[in-house]
Design goal:
With 359 residues, the chain is of the alpha+beta class. The protein contains nine helices and 20 strands. The strands form four sheets. The chain has a six-stranded mixed sheet with strand order 6-7-8-3-9-10, with helices on both faces. The protein has a five-stranded antiparallel sheet with strand order 13-12-11-14-20. A five-stranded antiparallel sheet has the order 15-19-16-17-18. Strand 17 and strand 18 form a beta hairpin. Helix 2 crosses helix 3, helix 3 crosses helix 4 and helix 4 packs parallel to helix 5. The longest helix is centred in the middle third of the chain and has 18 residues. The protein is elongated, with a radius of gyration of 25 Å. The model has no long low-confidence stretch (mean pLDDT 91).
Length: 359
């Protein structure tokens, strides 16, 4: 295991600046995910950590050792590429053993280590197959086995599940998480899939246009986003403008196009009459055909615009005033099935509403 510290990392390709002063600390044994849209710089950052790129400015430390100028083979890392990068002419055994052979490990030790790691990833007995004889999920596990057989201090994975179908992707990500916790390897994982990041990570660093917007646990990122980008990028969200009309005891009253809404102030307390963003998740919206009672006296009234029935979940878009409010109702059989044009009442617990400054 190793601690990773990035200090003021800048990276450019020609006139294009891809990373803009990245600072990040990753603890021993932590599973940290770099999450962001395509082109945001997350893969470039991973390759800098691996030593495949050298930053134009900044330093990389493994524990207290400066590795900025070290080549990849001197960093003791395991790297799993998006396309797996398996040797097509080599059998599974030889693909997994490749890193051990170039390190001069004896034949007997190679046999033992490969056997152990293939058992670990559930591919015992696949030693003599070629990559083309394996499914996508099996190829991914071979790539993972090859990365961990060298006993790396740091495991790096670049969108390793993007080529798998949805059902296999769920299965393999669970296997990766279990394996990482069992081996206690410090792991940095790159993905653009929000659900994948929420499920698999200890912490997530949300990357946007070359900067890190927020680093936090999945729970904090989802319910306490610090920026509008984070709120909008992770999961479904209601986010619209409001004006602060009252501030009292850690809460603010906001005038919005949907009506009056009360929210918790959060870290940044807004000013009276300031225009801010009101943020809350669809699943915290209570919906009823009958009038609701709120201790704050704030209940919204609207008309259902669209309904999406997903079995265990019902998604509603509700026209409230001049905006659309999203709601997600779990266990529709219990709460009742709604239909378009139904008139409904809505309320949201102020403790679950956040206020973000627009800048």
């Amino acid at each position: 295991m190793v601690r990773v510290r990035l200090e003021n990392i800048w990276m450019s390709f020609g006139n294009l600046t891809v990373l803009k002063g990245i600072n990040l600390n990753i603890s021993e044994g932590e599973f940290l995910t770099l999450l962001g849209p395509s082109g945001c710089g997350k893969t470039t950052l991973l390759r800098i950590i691996a030593g495949l790129y050298k930053p134009v400015k900044g330093r990389i430390y493994f524990d207290d050792r400066d590795v900025t100028d070290l080549p990849p083979w001197e960093r003791n890392i395991g790297f799993v590429f998006q396309d797996y990068a398996l040797w097509p002419h080599m059998k599974v055994f030889d693909n997994v053993a490749y890193g051990l052979r170039i390190r001069g490990v004896s034949s007997d030790e190679i046999k033992e280590k490969v056997r152990e790691v293939l058992k670990l990833v559930g591919l015992e007995g696949f030693e003599d197959r070629y990559p083309y004889q394996l499914s996508g999920g099996q190829q991914q596990r071979v790539a993972l086995a090859r990365a961990i057989v060298i006993n790396p201090s740091l495991l790096l994975l670049d969108e390793p599940l993007s080529n798998l179908d949805a059902k296999i992707r769920i299965s393999v990500r669970t296997e990766i998480k279990k394996l990482q916790k069992r081996l206690k390897i410090t792991t940095i994982y790159v993905t653009h899939d929000q659900e994948e990041a929420l499920v698999i990570s200890d912490r997530i660093a949300v990357v946007n246009q070359g900067i890190i917007e927020q680093v936090d646990t999945p729970w904090e990122l989802y319910y306490n986003p610090k920026t509008p980008f984070v709120a909008d990028f992770i999961g479904q969200v209601n986010m619209f403008e409001g004006e602060v009309v009252e501030i009292k005891d850690g809460y603010v009253l906001l005038d919005t196009l949907a009506g009056k809404i009360m929210a918790k102030t959060g870290d940044a307390v807004p000013n009276l009459n300031e225009k801010v963003l009101v943020v809350f998740r669809p699943e915290v919206v209570e919906v009823s055909r009958s009038p609701l009672v709120s201790k704050e006296g704030i209940v919204l009234r609207g008309r259902i615009d669209t309904v999406q029935f997903l079995g265990n979940l019902e998604r509603l878009e509700i026209k409230v005033g001049d905006i659309i409010v999203k709601a997600e109702l779990h266990n529709p059989l219990k709460v009742g099935i709604f239909e378009s044009e139904d008139e409904v009442y809505l309320k949201v617990d102020p403790d679950l509403v956040r206020v973000l400054r627009k800048d």
